[in-house]
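Lab notebook, bench 4. We co-purified these components, and the gel suggests they stay together. Before we commit to crystallization screens, I want a quick structural picture of the whole thing.
Request: model the full complex, all chains together.
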Amino acid sequence: MSTSNENGPVIEFRKVAYRFAGGQELLNGLNLQVRRGETLVLLGRSGSGKTTTLKLINDLVAPSEGEVLVEGRATTQWDPIRLRRGIGYVIQDAGLFPHFTVERNVALVPTIEEWPSDRIRKRVSELLQLVGLDAGLANRYPRELSGGQRQRVGVARGLAADPPILLMDEPFGALDPITRAELQREFLALQQRLQKTVVFVTHDLREALLLGTRIALMEAGRLVVALSSDEFTKSSDPLVQKYLDAFGAGCNGKRP
Amino acid sequence: MNVFQFIVQNHAEVLELTLEHLWMVAASTLLAVLIGIPLGILITRKPGWDKPVLGGANIIQTVPSLALFGFLLPVPWIGARAGRLAVLALTLYALLPLIRNTYTGIRGVDRAVVEAGRAMGMTDRQLLFQVELPLALGVIIAGVRIATVLSVGLATIAAAIGAGGLGEFIFRGLAMVSDQLILAGAVPAAALALVADLGLGWVEKRLSPQ
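Here is the predicted assembly.
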């Protein structure tokens, strides 16, 4: 992916609206910038438009109005295949291919990018190590793994071709609390090393405060505020207050 | 003399008619696979094509088989040889289960998995051949199985237009009021259907994911 504008935003939403063909509105008037190397968390409840916002970035949906720029170029101007191969994507329950082994799942993008097979093999073992998976799992199928292991495979798959941008849609949402905390910690450590530009969707304020450089709060298809984690807990915005109240202790200004 | 004695005594004719029967079933199923599976794939790709195509295949299936053989009789080239006509009629009948199962099989693949593939930058072709078809394969083979078993039964009626097959015995038996002759056609036909069902059932199980 070209990186012509090193200092500009990596992703930029300009007056973006998204409507279904029937006219139902999911997003309106969205202006938002994502800076290089930050983890921007999209926080909001179901139906607030956060997943749609994510899908606009890799052109899984196209804006009805306005434009989304990735590396300075509108998503509609990108070849969608090239755009998507330069953006890692990790979703809830991992969305792994059930008929592919762990190795083939992780190797997906390198394979369709036609890397030589020894390079792919090397990259897969590197990635499994990176996400804390035993190399012996490479030949297992997703159904033979635990939820936490599947999610680690999902993260490894998203990172496989070393994309500068990573989109994560509630990646830890379906995990038990202990595994979730473990994966969140590892994500932080990983992000410190890799410095990807990450857009992370969640409805969990604790997760947002823990992982996000900035938090963009969404409600009913609109962006309410976009603040750093510290600013967020001090904000007097009524909706922010509602979130802070709902999550209670551990969210009052300090990272849990 | 019971049926089995009859079959043993007339084994040459039984074998010949069984082979004729098999040929009709194999040729029509193969043709239906070659037409039905691509058509089933196509209607998952073209919005709005699914209802008319499935509806059309449905209507063909509602035409009584004897009537369908009759309708095809005046068609040039096809109508000239009973064998051709029978294969075409059987192909038309086999289309519905193949189109429908291919369509529902692909549509039934977990949307999250397909979308993950799309989000990773897979082309439509790669998604189809590497994700959708492998995951739908069990359902598609189930369609081939239904179509084959259906054809084995329907092919007995092809004897009515002189296309041969095990229906020969059945129609002869009906004319001569001979249970033995009817059974000499019906028992091997039922055995063929069972073998096809079991064989393709085994393939279906082997090829189904999980």
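The interface with chain A takes residues 110, 112-113, 115-123, 126, 131, 134-135, 209-210 of chain B (CB under 8 Å). Worth comparing against the SEC data before the next meeting. The radius of gyration of chain B is 20 Å.
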